Amino acid sequence: MTENVPLPDFDLSRFMPYRLAVAAQRTSEELARQYRDRFGISIPEWRVLVHLATAEDVSVRDIEARVAMEKSKVSRAATRLEAQGYVTKTQHQGDRRLVRLKLTPRGRELMAELLPLAQAYQDEIEARLGAAFAHLESGLTALLQDK
Amino acid sequence: MTENVPLPDFDLSRFMPYRLAVAAQRTSEELARQYRDRFGISIPEWRVLVHLATAEDVSVRDIEARVAMEKSKVSRAATRLEAQGYVTKTQHQGDRRLVRLKLTPRGRELMAELLPLAQAYQDEIEARLGAAFAHLESGLTALLQDK
DNA sequence: TTGACATCGTTGCATGTGCAATGATTAAAC
DNA sequence: GTTTAATCATTGCACATGCAACGATGTCAA
User: Fold this and answer.
1) Is A110 inside any structural domain?
2) pTM value > 0.85
């Protein structure tokens, strides 16, 4: 007769980690599918490419710190990108533990296509949300800053 | 001499899908580790449990729609939960294609521990963000409503 | 009834993932 | 200078994942 332990009310749809996960999934899904179907690129690979488009001469460690991915994930993404001919991996001259990642010309051409796609998607989200976009931005800034 | 294709500027750290992914990862990580280390529960399992704590007599299909997970993910989470003794899977009487998921008494006891943990975490986030929490909420609401 | 089609849940398969352990290299300690 | 510790990137392993295919059941039309 003690089978029915009472449970507190809880609304998953208002739980912030859940809402963020769903929002991230929704917004990534459409773009990720385009990347995958048209270019054979996954999200981890895309993140590495974006960072290389900004700063060349980057190590796995640098990317790990900048794009919020585990180093093994970065390493495997870089290996796949190298196999696809978008990236070269060479030994760093000063510190031979480091790997120097660099876009190939073909990789640059790819990014010249991908980056406008991403920017257009960002613009589309911003247009759709209107004033709420700024709210979302300030909320995320607060959430992501310290810690 | 045409090696250097020019690339448009792009700031990954301001790209909304990326920011949302990082925010989701950060906020889920801490809680997920607690669930895993202390109770042996993963995030997909947790989502199923939360929904069962709210509404009993639920099918895999129902959960798939409510908690934003693929049906195969729900199915496997339910299988694991059954093996751990937190959930029972029985055949629905009316429609024998459906599986009726239900918390066991032990499952209810687990949730009586887990739900307050989640609520405390939610409260902590809200306290830390202050006014920005409301901004985040309204932004997410706008983003997630239609589609 | 029969047949065609839709729905539900599970599973096979290839691939991605986190985590710990490893080898290679460099830095620090003494 | 030698030993010890730290750092960088990769890899092995067990497991999770998405997706398509499947079997079982239910629905609908003729």
Assistant:
1) yes
2) yes
3-state secondary structure chain B: CCCCCCCCCCCHHHCHHHHHHHHHHHHHHHHHHHHHHHHCCCHHHHHHHHHHHHCCCECHHHHHHHCCCCHHHHHHHHHHHHHCCCEEEEECCCCCCCEEEEECHHHHHHHHHHHHHHHHHHHHHHHHHCHHHHHHHHHHHHHHCCC
Q: How many angstroms separate the CA of residue A57 from the nearest CA in chain B?
A: 15
The reply to whether B10 falls in a domain is no
Q: Which domain holds residue B39?
A: 16-142
Burial A109-130 (b: 16+ CB within 10 A, else e): bbbeebbeebeebbeebeeebe
Q: What is the pLDDT of residues B8-26, one digit of tens each?
A: 999 999 999 999 999 999 9
What CATH number did the domain enclosing B93 receive?
A: 1.10.10.10
Quote the tokens at residue A116: 């406008």
Instruction: Give residue A1's pLDDT.
Output: 55
Number of domains chain B is built from: 1
Tally Cβ neighbours within 10 Å of residue A58.
20
The whole-angstrom separation of Cα B95 and Cα A138 is 48
Q: Return residues with beta carbons within 7 A of strand C.
A: A 42-44, 69-70, 72-73, 76-77, 80, 95-97; B 33, 59-62, 64, 71-72, 74-76, 78-79, 89, 92, 95, 97-99
Is B54 within a domain?
yes
Residue A53, domain member (yes or no): yes
